[in-house]
Write a structure and sequence with these properties.
Oligomer: heterodimer
CATH architecture of the largest domain in chain A: Up-down Bundle
CATH superfamily of the largest domain in chain A: RecF/RecN/SMC, N-terminal domain
Number of strands of chain B: 6
Radius of gyration of chain A: 23 Å
Distance between the termini of chain B: 67 Å
Strand order of the largest sheet of chain B: 4-3-5-6
Distance between the termini of chain A: 25 Å
Bound molecules: zinc ion
Strand order of the largest sheet of chain A: 2-1-4-5-6-7
Number of helices of chain A: 11
Largest sheet of chain B: 4 strands, parallel
Largest interface: A-B, 25 and 23 residues
Strand content of chain A: 15-25%
CATH topology of the largest domain in chain A: Glutathione S-transferase Yfyf (Class Pi), Chain A, domain 2
Structural class of chain B: alpha/beta
Helix content of chain B: 40-55%
Largest sheet of chain A: 6 strands, antiparallel
Number of helices of chain B: 8
Chain lengths: 403, 200
C-alpha cells in the first residue's frame, strides 16, 4: 500500500500542510525539533488511531486550536481510499471516516497499516512492561477487529470493577455489592480470556519471526527468545517471581506450576481467571484496584535463554528491538497481503554502517518508506528517493535523488 | 450572541435534550420560531400530553397510557415466560419480531458502577417480586450484548437462581444476522456466534 497524499491541520506544530509523497523512499531531512517526527506520527495515527509515542489526543492539537485533522489518500491493491481522522477537544470527540463513511472504531479501522521505528523502541526490550503490552496490543489491534473489541470491553469492565472495589472499601461487607462485584468478575474474565489466548498465539509467531530477523541483523550465533507471562492466570505472587526469573529455564519451571497454558480453551482460562480474582479479592478491595489481569501482563526477552536486559549489550538490545519491529511488519504484510508503510524515525544514527545497510535493504524491499533524519551519515539513498526539507513546521520538496 | 429572554430559554431547554448541542439547539429554536404559531402549540401540546398521560406499567414497568399496560392485560399472552429488557424501546423491538408471546419486564437501565447505577436503581426488586407467585417458569435475559448488559444479566441470573431456584434462566444468543452471507458478517459478530455454537 502507498500513502499518496497527507494533509495535517492544527496538528502538533503544523497549522496546515498538504504533501504528496513519493511511491518508494521518502526522506525527511531537518534539524531536531523541526517537526519530522510529527509527520511520521500523523501517518501512524491515521493507521492505528493512536499516537505511537503514547501521547493523548489533547496534546496533539496545535496550541490554541480546538481540534486536529489528519487526512490521507491511500492507494491499496483494492483501489484508492480516503481516510479522515478528526479530533475535537471539547466536548472530546474522535471520528474516523473512510471514503466519507464513518467507521465505528477509530483504532486501526481504515485499512492503512504502518510500522513505526523509533529510538525509543529500545524500551521494548529494556523498558517497563507497559511498553511491551502496548506493542502487542497495537499489533493485535491492527490484525483483528475482535481483539479491538475485546480490549475495549476489558477496559470498560476493569474500570467498572475497580469502581465497585472502591465502593466496597468504604463500607462494611455489603452482600448486594459483593454480588455486583461477582457479576463484574465474570464480565472481566470473559474479555480477559479472549485477550490472553490471542496474546499467547501472537507470542509464538512473533518469537519465531523476530528470532529470524535478529539473526539477520546481528549476524552472531545468539538466539532471540520471547516468553509470555499472563498475570491473570498466574496471580500477582507468581508474576513477581516471573519478572525476576533470571533465565528462560527458571521461568519455564515457574510457569509449569503457576497456572494453565495461556493457549488453553476459553472456558479453562475463564475458570482460572475467576479463581485468581477470588483469591485476590480482599487485597483488591483494600487497594481499590484489580491486581491480576491482562493489564498486568509481561513479556520476557531472552538471548540464548538469559535475560537480555541484564546480559545483552546495548547493540544487541537495539537489534532485538529492530527485530521485533521487522516481525511486526512481516505479520501485518501477511495479514493484509500488502506491505505496510515503514516509518523510520531517526534510527540510522544509532546503527553501524553494516546494520544500516541491512535495515534499509530489508525496509526498501516492497514497502513505502518514510525516513526522518538530521543527516544521512553518508548513507546512499535508493534510486528514486524523494527528499523533503523540514524546517519549523514547513515542509519543502528538495528534489529526487537519482543516484 | 444575545437573544431575547424567551428565545434564550427555549435554546437552553433544547440543549438539555440528549444529543443536542448548542448549535443544534439554536437551529431548532429558530426553526420553531419561523413556523406558524399553531405548529408550536401542537408541539408543546404533544410534549405535555405525552408527559402527563404516559405512566409506567405497575407490572412490567414499560411505558403505557393504561395501567396495567395492553401487553400485561392481554389474556392471550403466555404468562409463564418473562423477557427482561433494559429499555422500553427494547420491548418494541422484541414485539416487532412477532415471535415472542410471553410477558416483559423493563429494568430501565443496566448496572454501571461508573455511572452510579446499581441494582437498587433498576426495577430488580420488582422483578424478584413477580417471580414469587410461581406462575413464571422461564426468565429470558435480553439485556444489551455490551459489557454493562452482560454484567447485569450475570447478576440477575445469580440472583434469580438463589431466590427462585425453580425458575429457568436463559440468555438470548448473540448470533449472525439471518439472510446475510457468512463472508460479509463482521469479525466480532462471527467470533461471538462461534463461541455460542451448539450441538446439532
Ligand atoms: Zn405491563
Amino acid at each position: 500500500m502507498r500513502l499518496e497524499r497527507l494533509r495535517l491541520q492544527a496538528f502538533r506544530n503544523y497549522g496546515a500542510v498538504d504533501l504528496s509523497w513519493g511511491p518508494a523512499f521518502n526522506v525527511l531531512l531537518g534539524p531536531n525539533g523541526a517537526g519530522k517526527t510529527n509527520l511520521l506520527e500523523g501517518i501512524a495515527l491515521l493507521a492505528t488511531g493512536r499516537s505511537p509515542r503514547a501521547v493523548r489526543d489533547p496534546e496533539l492539537v496545535q496550541w490554541g486550536e480546538s481540534g486536529y485533522l489528519v487526512w490521507g489518500r491511500v492507494a491499496r491493491r483494492a483501489g484508492p481510499t480516503v481516510l479522515e481522522l478528526r479530533y475535537r477537544l471539547a466536548p472530546a470527540e474522535k471520528r474516523l471516516r473512510v471514503d466519507g463513511a464513518e467507521v465505528a472504531s477509530t483504532v486501526a479501522g481504515g485499512g492503512l497499516q504502518a510500522v513505526f521505528f523509533s529510538p525509543e523502541d529500545l524500551g521494548l526490550v529494556r523498558g517497563a512492561p507497559v511498553q511491551r503490552r502496548r506493542f502487542a496490543d497495537g499489533l493485535l489491534a491492527q490484525l483483528s477487529a475482535t481483539y479491538r473489541h475485546l480490549l475495549l470491553a476489558f477496559g470498560r469492565a476493569l474500570a467498572q470493577r475497580n469502581q465497585v472495589l472502591r465502593e466496597l472499601a468504604g463500607r462494611r461487607l455489603d452482600a448486594e455489592l459483593v454480588e455486583v462485584l461477582t457479576a463484574w468478575d465474570a464480565s472481566l474474565a470473559d474479555a480477559a480470556a479472549g485477550i490472553i489466548r490471542r496474546r499467547a498465539a501472537l507470542t509464538a509467531t512473533l518469537e519465531a519471526r523476530a528470532a529470524g530477523h535478529y539473526a539477520g541483523l546481528a549476524g552472531g550465533g545468539e538466539r532471540l527468545g520471547l516468553s509470555y507471562c499472563p498475570a491473570g492466570l498466574w496471580g500477582s505472587g507468581a508474576m513477581q517471581q516471573a519478572r525476576a526469573a533470571p533465565t528462560r529455564a527458571a521461568l519455564a519451571e515457574l510457569a509449569a506450576g503457576a497456572g494453565p497454558d495461556a493457549a488453553a480453551e476459553p472456558p479453562v482460562l475463564r475458570e482460572r481467571l475467576l479463581s485468581v480474582l477470588e483469591v485476590a479479592r480482599r487485597d483488591d478491595i483494600k487497594q481499590g484496584a484489580t491486581a491480576a489481569g491482562p493489564h498486568r501482563d509481561e513479556w520476557r526477552v531472552w538471548l540464548d535463554g538469559s535475560d537480555i536486559r541484564s546480559f545483552g549489550s546495548r547493540g544487541q538490545q537495539r537489534c532485538a528491538a529492530l527485530a521485533l519491529r521487522l516481525a511486526e511488519r512481516e505479520l501485518l504484510a501477511e495479514a493484509s497481503g500488502e506491505a505496510p508503510l515503514l516509518l523510520l524515525d531517526d534510527v540510522l544514527s544509532e546503527l553501524d554502517e553494516e546494520r544500516r545497510r541491512r535495515l534499509l535493504s530489508l525496509a526498501g524491499r516492497d514497502s513505502q518508506v518514510f525516513l526522518a533524519a538530521t543527516a544521512l551519515h553518508g548513507q546512499a539513498l535508493p534510486p528514486g528517493s524523494t527528499v523533503f526539507a523540514v524546517e519549523q513546521g514547513r515542509v519543502r520538496p528538495a528534489g529526487t535523488e537519482v543516484r | 450572541m444575545i437573544y431575547p429572554e424567551p428565545v434564550a430559554r427555549l435554546i437552553d431547554a433544547l440543549t438539555r435534550l440528549p444529543g443536542i448541542g448548542p448549535k443544534t439547539a439554536q437551529r431548532l429554536a429558530f426553526f420553531i420560531l419561523k413556523r406558524p404559531a399553531d405548529e408550536a402549540q401542537a408541539l408543546a401540546g404533544a410534549i405535555v400530553a405525552a408527559r402527563t398521560q404516559v405512566v409506567t406499567c405497575s407490572r412490567c414497568h414499560n411505558l403505557t397510557d393504561t395501567d396495567p399496560c395492553r401487553l400485561c392485560s392481554d389474556e392471550s399472552r403466555d404468562r409463564t415466560m418473562l423477557c427482561v429488557v433494559q429499555e422500553p424501546r427494547d420491548v418494541a423491538a422484541m414485539e416487532r419480531t412477532r415471535e415472542y408471546r410471553g410477558l416483559y419486564h423493563v429494568l430501565h437501565g443496566a448496572i454501571s458502577p461508573l455511572d452510579g447505577v446499581g441494582p437498587d436503581d433498576l426495577r430488580v426488586r420488582e422483578l424478584v417480586a413477580r417471580l414469587h407467585d410461581g406462575s413464571v417458569s422461564e426468565v429470558i435475559l435480553a439485556t444489551n450484548p455490551n459489557v454493562e448488559g452482560e454484567a447485569t444479566a450475570l447478576y440477575l441470573a445469580r440472583l434469580i437462581r438463589s431466590v427462585t431456584p425453580a425458575v429457568r434462566v436463559t440468555r438470548i444468543a448473540r448470533g449472525l444476522p439471518v439472510g446475510g452471507d457468512l463472508e460479509y458478517a463482521d469479525e466480532v459478530t462471527l467470533s461471538k456466534a462461534l463461541e455460542g455454537r451448539r450441538e446439532l
